[in-house]
Amino acid sequence: MPTKILKCRNPECKAWVRDEFATAEQSCPLCNGPMLRSIKHLPAVQNKVKPQPRKRKSEF
Ligand SMILES: [Zn+2]
């Protein structure tokens, strides 16, 4: 299900917070950087975590 989130602008940083828990001027809890509004598709129930291939910096 799509969920509104704020994600860190730093592509190397995986931090994100749910929009409903974010403050008006939310900054990244990990690197203190600026955050962007986004949508995250959260699976209803999924416990497995696959290691994902690294994205190239240039893709961002
Ligand atoms: Zn960050």
* SSE run: EEE
Q: Which strand order does the major sheet show?
A: 2-1-3
Rg of Cα set: 13 Å
Q: What ligands are attached or bound here?
A: zinc ion
Unreliable spans are: none
Characterize the structure shown:
The protein has 60 residues and is an all-beta fold. It is built from no helices and three strands. Strand 1 and strand 2 form a beta hairpin. The two termini are 24 Å apart. The model has no long low-confidence stretch (mean pLDDT 87). Bound molecules: zinc ion (ZN). Zinc ion binds next to loops.
Show the helix and strand layout.
Layout: E1 2-8, E2 16-18, E3 35-41
Antiparallel strand pairs: 1-2, 1-3
Bound molecules: zinc ion.
Can you tag this structure with a few keywords?
YdjO; binds zinc ion; 0% helix; 28% strand; Cold-shock protein; 60 residues; mainly beta; single chain; three-stranded antiparallel beta sheet
What's this entry about, in short?
InterPro entries: YdjO. It holds the Pfam family YdjO. With 60 residues, the protein is mainly β.
